[in-house]
Amino acid sequence: MTLQQIKKTALVSLWFVFLTFPIMVIRVNTITQTITWRWHNMAFIALGTFFGGLLWRLALDRKPASARQAKQPEVLTEDPDVTDVKAESGIARRLGILRVKVAQKRTRRSLIALAVFSALLFPHLSSLYQTNIMITALIYVMLALGLNIVIGLGNMLHLGYIAFFAVGAYTYGLMHQYLGLGFWAALPVAAVLSTLAGILLALPVLRLRGDYLAIVTLGFAEIVRILLNNARNLTGGPAGISGIPRPSFFGMTMNLYQVSIYIYYIVLAAVVLTVFVVWRFENSRIGRALVAMGEDDIAAEAMGVDISRVKLTAFALGSLWAGIGGVIFASRTAFINPASFTVWQSIIVLSCVVLGGMGSIPGVIIGALGLILIPEYLRAFSDYRMLVFGAILVTMMVFRPGGLIQKRRRAYTFHVEEQK
Amino acid sequence: MDLDYFFRLFFSGLTRGSIYALLALGYTMVYGIIKLINFAHGEIYMIGAFTALIMATVFSFAGMPALAILVLSSIIAMVYSSAYGFTIEKLAYKPLRKAPRLSVLISAIGMSLFLQNYVLLAQTSNFLPYPSLLPRIPVPRFLQGLVSGPQLIIFSTTAVVMVLLTLLIKYTTMGKSMRATSQDRTMATLVGINVNRVISWTFIIGSFTAALGGILISSFTGQINFYVGFIAGIKAFVAAVLGGIGSIPGAVLGSLVLGMAEAFAAGYISSVYEDVFAFVILVLILIFKPSGLLGKPEVQKV
């Protein structure tokens, strides 16, 4: 870091002080006709942007190396011990060693076993409050895994994912309200309906790609939300549906504590099922076709991939998990209204996927757990949650577009030497 | 059929359309040059309107005359919006010039989320009443009752901005560089155009008109909060797509059509589903005529 760079950073932070001046320093209230001047914010901005700017500059300087690395798909060889770790700076090397360790079958198995074991014991070792937070986090893990199919594998930006979550939740709510059906009856119906909704959305957007897809899916989610909000006779409008029953277990009566643990296990089972299906899907014929389409749709089509079918499958499978998650969500909160299903919820799920690593199952799980659990424990900063999510999306894209845990691509290496 | 009612809806549609046009310009210009939906564009519009509100309140406390308040606070707001547009591009899009389009799009969404919450935290989450900054002008006799003074100001401002912008793009060096860059960026670099500067200027000009739209519409509707930019931004984007993204006359035409369609649908069908119409129009356009009303069909090169 040269003196000139520091000088430049200082200038940039001055620019930010200027830029944020009216919004950060002056606060007007046109109702009470008062103006508050907050000069101290100026100092915060100056210091914050200066140090932030230094970090930004450092990270940008280091970026070319990591970008080069990201370009070559990581090779998952059968014997990961021989994978040479690229000579890099300290942290990267240590991470690299860690990655090799994790890639070893034995370590990986014991890690998974440990994760499953602690997940099973969790509700018995912690309080009701903790269990409830964990249920929310696991629902988001499910959502993130589902969205990961569309975004991570198919490379299609889907901003309306929460609409399917709403379809699931409302299916249960309405079926209970009008037909008196319980959780287990509603679950398959919701799964089917949300899958159908996914196909319904995918049909008109089959020909769209990239940016248009993002806008149309976003519009779809908004339409669903507006419909739910305005169909007062059916859905109760903004007041929502309340008194949704918790899941039953062969007619047993359970107290609040027991039922929470029960829901916890249901959602855990659902997450495990999701992981299994997504993992198998990834390496299936249609999953690979999806990845190929995500990388280059024209080339994939030329290679005989049926783009329409692949897209439909991706949307349908993605929506399915959202629908199931929605039912669990409705049964947990016992109350749903359209305010829980805004575009920003979709973007939270998107942040989970992006932070964890698009296309990587462990990455997505860790991303979702982190993004949902950390704000829960840092309640004091909960106002800054969405601000931080926005910042995460931008910085991740600039510095580490592959996410914390990057997608591993199964690669088949061709050894020329052995052919001789 | 009540003719007065029809004309009132017509002018209300024209008002919306004019505002969408001011916003859609930014979308279409940015899209034309770097092929990105700048999701943060709606936020720039909101920040412009907010800055004008803050400045106008401060100036009115200082006891300035109404016209000076209008001129000064609008100019400051537009300068600030342009500065925001410029900074956003440098921060969130420039490092991603060579990245896949999905990355830039996610970055844009992140920026939009960030800016919304920045204003929410630094200012307020409530709706604030917005003072009517626009001067009162007399409405011609034959239009009385159909259209209000502020609406006439909005139409004429939009028209003037459009004419100026067309001239800028047709005849100035910067405008020519913009057109060249949007046609072929590599070729533009080869003939000595500083592409990064062109992109910066595109963001600055787009933000400038967006702020103008924000000030006009907020003065007209009389309220503002941190969220106004998002939906307006999405609709302006729909308008840009409707007209053919990348085409400036297309953006204006699309905005007017969308504004009219919304006003008439709200007036004759139901105002509750007003926001749904925009998206339905978008989906229909994308299915039947993806290149928009005036756009060139996009040819996918392999």
**What structural class should be given to the helix and strand makeup of chain B?**
mainly alpha
Q: Strands of the largest sheet of chain A, in order across it?
A: 1-2
**Which class of chain B in CATH terms?**
Mainly Alpha
**Uncertain runs of chain B:** none
Rg value of chain A = 24 Å
Largest sheet of chain A: 2 strands, antiparallel
What is the ordering of alpha helices and beta strands of chain A?
A: HEEHHHHHHHHEHHHHEHHHH
The percentage of residues in β strands of chain A lies in: under 5%
Describe the structure.
- The complex is a heterodimer of chains A (420) and B (302).
- Chain A has two domains: 3-71, no CATH class; 126-399, ABC transporter involved in vitamin B12 uptake, BtuC (Orthogonal Bundle), CATH 1.10.3470.
- Chain A is globular and about 70 Å long.
- Chain A has 17 helices and four strands.
- Chain A is mostly helical and 420 residues long.
- With 302 residues, chain B is mainly alpha-helical.
- Chain B has a single domain, classed as ABC transporter involved in vitamin B12 uptake, BtuC (Orthogonal Bundle), CATH 1.10.3470.
- Chain B has a two-stranded antiparallel sheet.
- In chain B, helix 6 (173-183) packs across helix 8 and helix 9 crosses helix 10 (248-268).
- Chain B starts with a helix and ends in a 14-residue tail after the last helix.
- The mean pLDDT of chain B is 87.
- Classes of the chains: A mainly alpha (420), B mainly alpha (302).
- At the A-B interface, helix 1, strand 1, helix 2, helix 8 and helix 14 of A face helix 2, helix 3, helix 4, strand 1 and helix 9 of B.
Summarize the structure.
The complex is a heterodimer of chains A (420) and B (302). Chain A has 420 residues and is mainly α.
Protein traits:
heterodimer, A: 420 residues, mainly alpha, ABC transporter involved in vitamin B12 uptake, BtuC, 2 domains, two-stranded antiparallel sheet, two-stranded antiparallel ribbon, 71% helix, B: ABC transporter involved in vitamin B12 uptake, BtuC, 2 strands, globular
